[in-house]
């Protein structure tokens, strides 16, 4: 049953088997913002006119070295005909000095002028080659990254939280089918992959087999289940955090392999209910969840001098202990003493510098 559902959402083309240059429209790695085509064309036109006038001036300086006495208009005409390689032959150099100038100066300028004329095509080829090499290098080196599938409201919030926690934008890969939201993600410095997260081929080129974590945040619960199934099949050791709208679908995601499931509708509903009774509690919870200045819930390794201490007596406001992958609340018997290898779940003060930290 699961295999039939997955095959329905998979494409016929195995994207992961395509050469790197065929992925130019699928994988986008942020780089420097390129100049507009009009500015590039305008610059090339200015360069071309500069070369034309420069050659015309050089020819005019030696105006008596040609088959006729040249005016500046004649020199400019010779410059245009010569640099464009048209070569009518009505004006030609006849003296030794004029011919030497043509060999040493005008011929190299003619080559540069021809290169300038085809500069747009060369620029496109160079840019595509650069992007191909960039994609090739990225696919070989990407490790322990986080993949966010679905860049809607939930996906963007997840990325904001990751960036606020110090994760580098180059370690976040966004997968979506909407070109406009992928452009928005790329403008934030994120690597983007165009395609459906339900397809194994798309997940493979996003590097899911080497990913540290996968955030599943599509717009519908059935898509979330399919994505989770595909991710868990390809990446058995990756941490999968999924979001669902309705609580009755939570067990489907857990059975599909999600390590953690967030119920968005119930969470929002609880906050709405609390806001009518105790709005200050909601304000504090929003502060804890916000990546801006204020407080946030964070996790850190314990220091050597904290081993054996009671976590309630530490300087940080501790909420719990993480031991061997298990979370123990501060009021549980297991959290009475800090042991080597434990990690603290605590409330951290967030400053503006923390938010800006790469």
Estimate what percentage of residues fall within beta strands.
Answer: 15-25%
Spatial separation of the terminal alpha carbons: 44 Å
Global shape: elongated
Rg for CA atoms = 32 Å
Architecture of the largest domain, CATH level 2?
A: 3-Layer(aba) Sandwich
CATH class of the largest domain: Alpha Beta
| Helix share bin | 40-55%
Mean pLDDT: 80
CATH superfamily of the largest domain: NAD(P)-binding Rossmann-like Domain
Subcellular location: Cell membrane
GO biological process, one term: potassium ion transport
Protein name: Voltage-gated potassium channel Kch
Main location: membrane
Structure description:
The chain is α/β, with parallel strands linked by helices. It is built from 13 helices and 11 strands. It has helices spanning 2-9, 37-61, 72-83, 96-117, 119-141, 153-164, 179-187, 200-205, 221-234, 250-256, 264-277, 279-289, 352-356; strands at 27-28, 146-149, 172-176, 191-194, 213-216, 239-244, 260-263, 294-301, 317-323, 326-329, 343-350. The radius of gyration is 32 Å and the shape is elongated. 25% of the residues are buried.
